[in-house]
C-alpha cells in the first residue's frame, strides 16, 4: 500500500512540486477476530493507512483485500456491502458526530443507508439493543451529542459504527481525547463488544500502554513504513528494531529500582519530513546502531527474524546478539527536552543522542 499526497503550488494550485509519502510501502494483514494495534509517532502515516484500508482515502498503489475480495475491483452494491462491513471509530467524537442530529438520528442514518431500518418496531428494538450494548440509557435517543460527556460521546460513536453490523472496526485513537479515568472504560467496552459480536479491530494509537493492553499483535510504523510487527507480548518483551527499542525504553516503569537500571535509548533529532524522507533505511538518521553505507543506501525489507516477528532492519540479529553496539555519543542530555508524558505516549526527545546504560 502506498498513499502519496501531492504538494501543490501555483496560483490555482496547478503545479505538483512534490509528494508527502504518508504511507510508502506497507504490507500487513489483520486476522479475523484479532486486535491489531498500530503505533508510531504523530505524522508517521497511521491514520492514512487506516483510512486507505476502508477506502476513505484512495491509495496511490497497492490494494486492500477484505475476506478474500480485492476492494479495488468492486463497484456499486457489492462495494456498499463491503463498506458496511468495515467501519471507523474516530478520535474526537465531538467533531465526528453532527451536533444537530439527535442520537436516534445519528444511529438510524447508517442503518437507513444500508437498508437495515426495515420497520419501525424492529428499528426501535435495534436502537435499544445498541444503546444497551454500549452502556447508554435508553433515554439517550432524543438527546444531542453536546448533552453527553466525552466518554459517553465516544460510546455513541461506537454504537454508530456497530449500527450497521460491521465485521472490522478501525478505531483511530479511540481514547486519546478522553480523560485518563474514562479511557479504561472505553477500552473495556471495545473488548466486551469484540467478544460479543466477534469483531476484528485495527486500533491506531500513539499510546503504547493502550496498544499493549488491547492488542493481540502490534505493528510499529515509522515515516510511512512498518518497521516491526509481532505479537503484543513478544514485541513488548523483545523489541528488535532500534526505533521500537527506543519507544519502549521511553515508557516509564513504576518501580524506581527497575527504572534506575533500565537502558534508555534517546533518539537524535526530530522525525524527518515525510515529504523528504531519508534515503535507505528511513530511520538511519536517528538510529544509534546505524552502520556505514548499507543503512543509508538500501531500504531494509520487513523480514521474519523470529517466528511471527517481522523486523525491517539490516542488522536486527547483530543488534539483538550484541555484535553491534550502539554508537557512543558524548552525553548531551537535555532533560527539559525529554518529554515522556505520564500516559507513556510517544512524545520524544528533541535533540539528544545518547544511549544510557
Ligand atoms: N489529505 C492530506 N493531504 C496532504 N497531506 C496529508 C493528508 N493527510 C495526511 N497528510 C500528511 O501525511 C502524513 C501522515 O499523516 P497521518 O495523519 O496519516 O499520520 P498519523 O501517524 O496518523 O499522525 P497523527 O497521529 O498526528 O494523526 C503527515 O505528514 C500529514 O501531514
Automatic annotation (TrEMBL):
This is Dipeptide/oligopeptide/nickel ABC transporter ATP-binding protein. GO terms for molecular function: ATP binding; ATP hydrolysis activity. The keyword Glycosyltransferase does not apply. Residues 7-248 form the ABC transporter domain. The lineage of its organism: Bacteria, Bacillati, Actinomycetota, Actinomycetes, Pseudonocardiales. Belongs to the ABC transporter superfamily. One of its GO terms (biological process) is transmembrane transport. SMART domains: AAA (SM00382). InterPro entries: AAA+_ATPase, ABC_transp_ATP-bind, ABC_transporter-like_ATP-bd, ABC_transporter-like_CS, Oligopep_ABC_C, P-loop_NTPase. PANTHER family: D,D-DIPEPTIDE TRANSPORT ATP-BINDING PROTEIN DDPF-RELATED, TRANSPORT ATP-BINDING PROTEIN. Keywords: ATP-binding, Nucleotide-binding, Transport. It comes from the Bacteria. It comes from Actinophytocola xinjiangensis.
